[in-house]
């Protein structure tokens, strides 16, 4: 079967007015923070391949041994308000946190399984409840990541394509697993106030098995939308969106690019999002110090906006519950850039000019922003035929000479790129009309 065929159970879906409004909000937001936090965070990426949150699979740790990590999970320095303030100052408008990753451990109070942060750890606190309250106070929307793949639940059977076979039970009741998943989603959608949405991952684990059509996606999506119609559903299945989904994400790729080898799906008409790491890992990785520079991350944010997509940037909290200091510094710098240049990103849409080798454009009513990311010298041609009333360099408001051409216009860029953060993206604002 073709990878892109929707699952057989899919039915038609008509989003509600609240949901459509939430999609607009989502697109206006443009910048979110992703958090991978779980038992794996304690081990700091010391697995065979260093993908921190995959250590259970990488090292083939049997569930009965891995479970012991819960006894030591005690991130007493976790301060949800401090996190929310850091994200807010970075210019983010929403937060997505792992409520359960592939390891199967619930980072929230769950009656559906004792394998959760409140019942199984000495911490006994519900970090998602604390974060929900802090985000609400700070004016950030909170989304929950939820892994459909589960290396711990005995009914997650047969094992899928990830290969985590170590001491897995040799049988299981798949429908019981889906009931469990839905029970946890019900908890997430009823105990934390209005949430931004559910960010699914792990469906791909069973895409090549007989279980592919047995996820009961329709039922699960209907449950979510009936509990919170405005909650947006996205599923990182790397395929063209299925009915019932409200946005499409691309993992570590700008929409339409496929440098990772698994984002083969076409770009849909739904709101878009690109998820990216700050070093090479999603979960906290103490041995990976290949941090991307602030300039690189801003360029990804701008590249995403120019392709009409949000930028969801990940950080992996440390075992004590604090954010990594290296990441906090970068977040601060992103906030400084967004303070100056935010109008060219927030509440814009991609275009009107399609992405070019030199950069991208974003637009808002009556305005176009030209983001010049790579340019050596000479005039820059823009295939834009609308009349331009005024062209200004956003960094200091100085006028940019515009020369009309029959098929567009030519901009004369300043001879030098700006200093420091002003040099990451030369933004020119065109006022139309
Ligand atoms: O396997 C996961 C991975 O650990 C991480 O959560 C990323 C985030 O987009 N998604 C999965 C791979 O597609």
How is the secondary structure organized here?
Layout: H1 17-29, E1 31-35, H2 55-58, H3 63-66, H4 80-89, E2 94-100, H5 127-138, E3 141-147, H6 174-190, E4 197-201, H7 217-227, E5 232-235, E6 248-251, E7 272-276, H8 294-306, E8 309-315, H9 325-341, E9 349-350, E10 359-364, E11 367-372, E12 380-382, E13 388-393, E14 402-405, E15 408-411, E16 426-432
Parallel strand pairs: 1-2, 1-8, 2-3, 3-4, 4-5, 6-7, 7-8
Antiparallel strand pairs: 9-10, 10-11, 11-16, 12-15, 13-16, 14-15
Helix pairs in contact: 4-5, 4-9, 6-7, 8-9
The structure holds ligand FHN.
Residues 53-54, 201, 236, 251, 275, 282 line the site of ligand FHN.
Explain what you see.
With 433 residues, the chain is α/β, with parallel strands linked by helices. It folds into two domains: 332 residues, Glycosidases (TIM Barrel); 82 residues, Golgi alpha-mannosidase II (Immunoglobulin-like). The protein has nine helices and 16 strands. It has an eight-stranded parallel sheet with strand order 5-4-3-2-1-8-7-6, sandwiched between helices. Strand 2, helix 5 and strand 3 form a beta-alpha-beta unit. Helix 4 crosses helix 5, helix 4 crosses helix 9 and helix 6 runs parallel beside helix 7. It is globular, with a radius of gyration of 22 Å. The site of ligand FHN has 7 residues, from loops.
